[in-house]
Amino acid sequence: MHLVIMELEDILVKSPLPLHPSLAGHPRLSVKVVMNGKAQVATPFAPEMPQGGVWEMSGTLEIPTIGADVSLMIMADGEHGSKEIILAEIETTEFSMRVKKQPDLEYHEIPTCHSRSPVQMILRCSIKDVLSPIYSTEDALDGGEDPLMGDRQEIPSREWLENMYSRVTRLEDRNACAHDLNIIGYNFYKLYQENNVVADLERAIFILEEAMQYASVFGPQPAKYSSDLGEVFMERFTQKGDINDIEKATKLCQDAVKVSKDADEDMAKWLLNLGNCYEFRFDIFGKMEDINEAIAIRKRSVVLMHKDDANRPQALENSAGALLKRFRQSGSMYDLTESILFQQEVVDLTPHDDPYTPGRLNKLAISLQLRFERLGNIEDREKATVLFKSVVNLTPDDHPDKPARLSNLGSTIQSSFNSHGNIRDLESAISFKQAAVNLMPDDHPDKPALLSNLGVSIQSCFKILGNIDDLERAISLQQKAVDLTPRDHPDKPRQLNNLGSAVESRFDILGEIEDLESAISLQQAAVDLTPDGHPDKPRWLYNLGRLVQSRFQRRGEIEDLECSILSQQAAVTLTPDGCPNKPKLLNGLGMAVESRFDRLGDIEDLESAIALQQAAVNFTPDGHPDKPALLSSLGRALQSRFSRLGNIKDIESAISFKQAVVNLTPDDGHPDKPRRLNNLGSAVRSRFDRLGDVEDLKSAISFQQAAVNLMPDGHPDKLALLSNHGQSLFLRFQIMHHQADLESAIVSFSAAATSPTGQPILRFRAAVLWAEACLLCNQSPLNAFQCAIDTLPQVAWLGTPLSNQHAQLTQVGDLVRYAVAVATELQEYETAVRWAEYGRSIVWQNLLGLRKPLDNLRKAYPELATRLQSISLQLEGSLSRHDHLGESKLDTLQNFANKASMLAAERDKIIEQTRKLPGFEDFLRAKPVEKLAPAAYEGPVAIINVHKIRCDALILVPHDSHHQTTSIVTIPLKSFSYDMSVNLFKKFSQILSSERVRARGDRQGFRLQEDKKKVSLDSILVDLWIYVVKPVLEGLGYRVSFFPGYHSRIWWCATGPLAFLPIHAAGNYGSDAVGEKISDYVISSYTPTLTALIEQSQPEITDDFQILTVAQPSTPGQNPLPQTTVEVEHIQEAASSMRVQSLTGDEATTARVLKSMKESNWIHLACHGLQYRGDSLKSGFLLHDKTLELSDLIKEPFVKSDFAFLSACQTATGDENIAEESVHLAAGMLFSGCKGVIGTMWSIQDNDAPKVTKAVYERMLKGGIPNRKEAARALHEAVKELRESGSTFTSWVPFIHIGR
Predict the structure, then answer these.
(1) Total-model pTM
(2) How many Å apart are CA 987 and CA 993, to the nearest integer?
(3) Residue 151: other Cβ atoms inside 10 A
(4) CA separation (Å) from 1036 to 1048, 1049, 1272?
(5) What is the pLDDT of residues 602-627, one digit of tens each?
(6) Quick one: DSSP state of residue 188?
(7) Which of 714, 627, 722, 638 minimizes the C-alpha distance to 675?
(8) N or C, where is the chain less crowded by C-beta within 10 Å?
(9) Cis bond leading into 118, ω under 30°?
(10) What is the spatial distance between Cα 969 and Cα 827, in angstroms, rounded to a whole number?
């Protein structure tokens, strides 16, 4: 027995502020130590910081400890006998154990607090040996049979281990002490493994560290001590994630291996622990040197084992796992193959009835499935399927791994479906995944993953069968998976990604922008929740970039494309070279940058795209399934550079790459073969266009013919192949004049144009080419043109955004005028009018005439409407239009064509069914002329068709005002041409630009320049008079009207460049003779379409009739318009007996104005207007807070609105890129519900606007009765007064009337 003096050098007692009530009243405290219930000694506390409640002991307590059953209580009491407070209760064995951490420490601080104590206490202690006992060698624990454990099999109790620890620490033999401490410490570790009490883990580390201190470097077991302690540090690292623990563990396990020899019995165990350390390090830091070291160590452990070693299967399994990790990082197929070999040996060494068998079979199956996904070897997938089935059969239903194994089996069977398209495979996959979900309890943490996997399969079912209910179910499953997954769960980003994918599929089908926005939001959340070092982060970034790029393609906003490029660039940057996904990411980034080149034309973008796509090719080994797709992308980019720069080396390289792509693509029904042959033909055709070698043209035709032959009828891509083939044949006919080529071209064009599937814009172009070929072949082109016209509603499909519609319609305006010109040439005048009307303002017709019926259809037959939209969007696209890297094809070409044909038949059936419903008779087709006749019941409507082959006026003339019947009068404009219209428009635009008439206001010095400018503008008006207007008036037999107010009415519907010229002001103003200007004969109005004039009856005047006036005398950031308030005053005077709501200055916010417009009958806007050249839908009225855009005006109709006066600049200026589309503010008001609109073609002078306003409203409100139909006559008279007062052309010409 020995005596230890524990010196409590100081005690710090801290009380919360304010001082605890039990102590705050005591100016002094004392502390005493109670040993085994008997007070030993007391010492006072001196308050060092009375305000902070901190006391420090002024003396030292010496406490002798004898034996292992001494207990201490440290009490605090006041000097005046207040109630004692227990600060701490400590067992001396624990106490000495905790303070005696390192012999070389002078002291140790122990924070401790009794549960009933209101204070915190810190003991600062040191240990002194007063008397050292004498031990005999018999006291030591000899080797051989473990004297500590004896015959024990179970893990000893904590109390027993502590008692043994107390005995062992008194041993004099340091090696024996180290040996026994190591056993005690490792048993604490085992105790922790059994009960998960963290204190046992900490105790294990403490004692194992102590064993290391006692152990001699030259002792018998330093390797064991190091490895055991390293193993326990690894365990604590897995619990707490402290990097220091894994570093210590690695160093200790390295030391164990270093001091051991290969022949040592436990060397395999030391290597096992060291390998674990390196794998943990790789998992944390992702450094390849760590996984490389782990693999080398794993393999070394396998080599050191005999083949019949019981631990060999585990060593092989560890090696296989490490190789699999390196494969996932580097993509090395050698690693995956070697991992499979090791796993196969593990399975071979494991008895069939071994409990480890199902788990090992499962791992082997997973690896085989991985290899199949990389190399496409069917044998791997088939073997994986067999193994997964065995795993499922060997696993009882109540086994916790049964659901996951069922899900794995379902996934591999779905893989088979993805390759072969056998619907039974998909049904089987869904069945197994559903069983997995059913077996898994709702509160199990793995339930969300199983729900998500099932959702993926249901989504595939939707893709193959097209049942929207399947997609909705997939979205529901993915949403549930997301909802059940905590935000900080590592699977949360994956679940968000899968949900985003399902929602994206719904967007692809229904075209609702909200779904695309939702998918982007979900993908952004997946990115935000994933740390930069996570291997999935690049994938999520890539998906996000791809989705944002889809939004760019939908909206055309360059900001989206920039964001897409940034996301995909981040994905590339975070992905190390050698990663199997790196080529896919590089290619995706390259395609996004190439899109920016297509949009902005910066050649540096194209150079960057080529460099990225070249890198993608270089990173991809030959034989990789993605290699052809990457080569194809690179070839396309090089062909684009050739088109831009003309370097023949680029087209040679493009052809070389595309030829390689064709050679690498199997002939046995590969879904990409036809398109790749077509692309090769396109490249060879480009070389012909440059060099003129007819052999190239012959080769191009051959490749394109092969593509057509391989593509089954009904496939959405076939029409593009047919069209390309036809164009090459047509070109060869033009060069070599072989009639057979022309006839073959007609066959190809007609087949493409009449294809029931594919993109409408391609069908439209093919139909026009068909018509051109027919004209050369002396065949009637009418059927071809009719096919083109019938396609127009689908070109501007109501499910696509207006910006996309306008982008596509820029390509078709001239072609529609061409069709009208040909029909007129063939004297098919009714057909010409129908086509002209259908081609005019087709986007607006979708808004007015098509979107509304679809809404009505959706209200009456929602399933019918949804199905129609879904089918149409599917038919416009193709799953094989682009090479999708890493994605398996869902179907064969023939199966996909069959599906598309079935969808086309169903679409046509739905349309026919819809046309039988009341009010839907003309659904998605042009109205017959008899239904257009009412447009002319108040006066002739002149459609001026301008094309290169001829120009004509097609005029609907009313028979009489009582019967809404019309005749079509055709007046050829023989002296007018398309080129003349272009030159007039250019000259007109130059004049307006030079006069700075793009903003309303007084233009200083303008009148001083009038003499120089008058002739130029006058010459335009003279040309319009001589070549356009006068022939029309003469053809209609109009005479000069000498009686004011009795002029006839005429409506102008111009096309092409003529749509932007002031036909209403045509005349020879240099002559004083009567009858030399249009205003001498008629009152002119404009209309964007005939349909816009139909059903324009005068509404009844109700008691709630209201006029809205909006005035902006000082719009922020714009020139002041002080006369706008004068305009409002004139209106208020004219409407003195009516309700007028006026919003002026800061009252005129966009929200208030838009709300008031919906509540008003007449609307007067006196403010700045803006025609946005880049995107007409962004044109609008500049109000106090922001611009009220055209896109806002046409969202929903103004039910009460009847008339609008837009006293602003450029309110009737259209977009010259879309001459057939009346995309301006005045037309926007017309199609929002107003029956008539006064607008301006360019800016007006601020002083002129009140004059015109006063004259117009006085006539329209004459007698206190609002009469909208007087608007055109009122404007005619008001402008006449302005003109005759000496105002310049640019002052009076811009005012126009649209509608009735």
Answers:
(1) 0.65
(2) 10
(3) 6
(4) 11, 12, 21
(5) 999 999 999 999 999 999 988 888 89
(6) H
(7) 722
(8) N
(9) no
(10) 11
